[in-house]
Design brief:
single chain; two-stranded antiparallel ribbon; two-stranded parallel sheet; 17 helices
């Protein structure tokens, strides 16, 4: 359709739409502070180690009490303490408790092998602890994937090429460098019977000695080199895709891009830096988990506020959950007083925590090299971790739950714009 004015024909030109799509999970300010900006907490912990030289066992201990254990409680507050969820997820909440049996089965298996005279009888117990550790990192990776998918849903990237590429980049840039860290770190190497340190990189003597250089490289050097190449390819592909979308006039998902460029550099740097090779893996764990905890607590609190709301606006009664979530300080206080302090206070009393060994010597070492009390404590804390991981796999599926989509405001276009 054209408009004729003064015998001249004007053809309307479509104005370009906004260059960015910027719908947030919570809201712009909260997302930038708790979902994206929380990555700064990881760098802060790294600075405590690499710059300030603080006692990282003390930093780790404070972190598990103030943030990590409360983020487990956040899962329980929205499941076991919620009367509606208890009815809806009865099979899951009861059946998932079976995960606490995995550790005891590993102990029985190791004891059986020892009784049979097997030389490597401790392998089932070691495999159990390694599995819990690897599952912990996978759990963090899966949460980041979940956040990415929420940004997809909020900004109308439900599927197609971008969703597949984003998943590949996210998983690749978190998991591939982690493999390089495990190949280099003395804790992981010693657990599988390797020498404490990897061989030195051979000296480069020029093109003429390239063949000798290649032959002198250990398998660890090849792993590191290939993982770096993989990360470079993935990051390049992601950047080129964004450039292509700009050239084609397509909108860019701003929250997702900011999230990627907050999360990925932290994990990549921490996996390759030499600074973390001189300390235990607990330091790495605290660095990459502390902001995961902040993200999780922020999302669950947003969920709580929407689901339970002010008492005058509630359409249902949710039991104890609505009482402990009335105020954020009550919610966190209950988590610390009834979750963190009992669990980690017990760890101090039985001399499990090196920096707070206040209790008496309780028993002789078992065939696993620790006292019975400490073994049972490991079973408790590992069981809590795995139970949290299992519950999280099922309770955060907005695609299958209309109620969850409402509680997260996923279908309200104005709520987080």
């Amino acid at each position: 359709m054209s408009v004729r004015s003064h015998d001249r024909e004007f053809v309307p030109i479509a104005l370009p739409g906004p260059r960015f799509s910027a719908r947030w999970i919570l809201n712009a300010r909260a997302d930038l502070l708790f979902i994206i900006g929380s990555v700064l907490a990881g760098y802060l912990v790294f600075g405590m180690h690499a710059v300030l030289g603080w006692n990282m066992l003390l930093v780790w201990f404070i972190w598990v009490i103030v943030l990590d254990t409360p983020h487990f409680f956040a899962t329980y507050s929205r499941t076991y303490l919620d009367s509606e969820e208890r009815k809806y997820r009865k099979a899951l909440l009861i059946g998932s408790l079976g995960v606490f049996l995995i550790g005891p089965v590993a102990i029985v298996a190791s004891y059986g092998l020892k009784s049979a005279g097997a030389a490597h009888f401790v392998i089932p117990w070691l495999l159990f602890k390694i599995t819990v550790s690897l599952w912990a990192y996978w759990h963090i990776t899966r949460q980041h994937y979940g956040v990415m998918r929420l940004y997809h849903r909020k900004n109308d990237e439900h599927g197609g090429f971008d969703a597949k590429l984003d998943a590949l980049v996210l998983y690749g840039c978190l998991l591939v460098p982690f493999g390089a860290l495990l190949a280099r770190h003395h804790n992981s190497r010693m657990r599988v019977g390797l020498s404490r340190h990897i061989p030195q990189v051979p000296e480069w003597t020029g093109v003429s000695g390239a063949g000798q250089f290649v032959r002198a490289m250990s398998w660890e050097h090849w792993v590191i080199g290939l993982t770096i190449a993989c990360v470079v390819v993935l990051i390049t592909a992601f950047i080129l895709r964004q450039i292509y979308k700009v050239l084609m006039g397509e909108q860019l998902n701003l929250p997702k891009i900011l999230f990627f460029f907050a999360v990925l550099p932290l994990h990549i740097y921490m996996c390759y830096t030499e600074h973390l090779l001189t300390t235990g893996l607990l330091t790495f764990t605290a660095i990459v988990t502390i902001y995961h905890d902040i993200q999780y607590l922020a999302i669950v609190w947003f969920y709580n506020r929407n689901r339970y709301g002010p008492p005058t606006e509630r359409k249902k009664r949710f039991g104890l959950a609505e009482k402990v979530t009335r105020k954020v300080w009550i919610w966190m206080g209950v988590a610390i007083v009834f979750g963190s302090i009992p669990v980690w206070g017990l760890g101090c009393l039985i001399n499990r925590i090196p920096i707070c060994q206040t209790g008496p010597h309780l028993g002789d070492p078992t065939f696993l090299g620790q006292t019975t009390w400490i073994v049972f404590f490991v079973l408790l804390t590992a069981g809590l971790q795995m139970h949290h991981y299992i519950l999280d796999q099922y309770i955060w599926r907005p695609g299958r739950s209309k109620q969850l989509r409402e509680d997260l405001k996923l279908e309200d276009r104005n709520a987080a714009a």
